[in-house]
């Protein structure tokens, strides 16, 4: 799971604390400016980067540096004043490290938001205070709900253009709350901001005395993320089998839960069982390993285990199924149609499948959100995406050229 707090020995602690978050908003809602302000006011940009932005801004006749230039890295983005691709930025404060995915606002780049938010612990959804909740806001909220992003911030931007009025903020929050309830979002945190003026981005605003909540950075620094509950199901997809001195080692990344020496485990899809006799993390023996650590595993018995198998422990086991139903976002320019033959890439396993149904739709085109029913050639050890994001997600791939077609989030009956 992203954002996990682990030290290098594999023990939960406070040595490393990283928050992955994504920003989303309609065109001209000020998303790139907000990200630029966040980096600028938190002193997370280099002097030469700021000088370059100031130089470009002056050449355009702008008095103040256009902070959106800090994130719109592509020439086409700068020329059109829009974000096209996902731009990742890394910064840190004394309290936390951050991986930020700045995602596009245009409808035709919705698939890029899916990419940016798929591994996020938190999504910041921007709204222009003058326009309120619009179609793209609802679309971005739907994607956050679809991807089960644990935390959502509603950043009501451009408060300076509505006189910093509390009533305008409350109206938008109430409207968004209605849509959030319909989508099944567990909750959201509303924050009134002005990215252009710096209100409530890094520092508290002096213009909105009626707002008693945190500034955006303060919230990002303190929102609890990362550590899975102690009863998270154990999921270990086998990536490689290594033979050393007649002993088999199974290598991969622990997708969920914690695994201990002595644990009884089950191998899927064979159903064979064994016991963990050794765990190595970073080449060092460990009595216990936690997701998302990469490790090698040794078992007490010789089992027929290969890449793509999944090792689990405990009573919570994945569904072994060839009939897969999922919520999807179509990513490719090529349409997905009923009857298409595809590859399903699920963790380290890839199997052939046929598209049986698209929720009644004739086809899915790029950026469409929908549902799909698949029949796979071999069983998959699948979790409901709502329970385990890593092992509930998959990709559909074109078998002809390897193009990624569709991102799927499994829904088990």
From TrEMBL:
Indicate whether Nucleotidyltransferase appears among the record's keywords.
yes
Q: What broad class of enzyme is this?
A: transferase
Domain named Tr-type G is located at 16-234
Q: Does the keyword Nucleotidyltransferase apply?
A: yes
InterPro entries per the record?
A: CysN_GTP-bd, CysN_NoDQ_III, G_TR_CS, GTP-eEF1A_C, P-loop_NTPase, SO4_adenylTrfase_lsu, T_Tr_GTP-bd_dom, TRAFAC_GTPase_members
Q: Which UniProt keywords apply?
A: ATP-binding, GTP-binding, Nucleotide-binding, Nucleotidyltransferase, Transferase
Instruction: List GO molecular-function terms, semicolon-separated.
Output: ATP binding; GTP binding; GTPase activity; sulfate adenylyltransferase (ATP) activity
Name the Enzyme Commission number(s) assigned to this protein: 2.7.7.4
- Classification via CDD domains: CysN_ATPS, CysN_NoDQ_III
Q: What is this protein called?
A: sulfate adenylyltransferase
> Which GO terms of type biological process are on file?
sulfur compound metabolic process
* Species, as recorded: Streptomyces sp. R21
- Pfam families xref list: GTP-eEF1A_C, GTP_EFTU
